[in-house]
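Ticket closed. Logging final result for DUF1540 domain-containing protein.
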Amino acid sequence: MPDIKCSVSECKFNSEMSCGAPMIQVDRNGVSKASQSLQTKCETFKPRS
Ligand code: SF4
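Final structure:
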């Protein structure tokens, strides 16, 4: 797994702006063909409880 830099500090997998999940899934965000990063999203996100 490569290092994944992520600024979503409210995700439970995030530690010091780095992703600590064993794997992540990224999908298109409501479009059939993405042409910019805004059209993608991390599905592995889980809020801190
Ligand atoms: S699971 Fe996704 S949102 Fe959460 S820290 Fe990793 S890359 Fe960021």
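The chain has no helices and four strands. No further action required.
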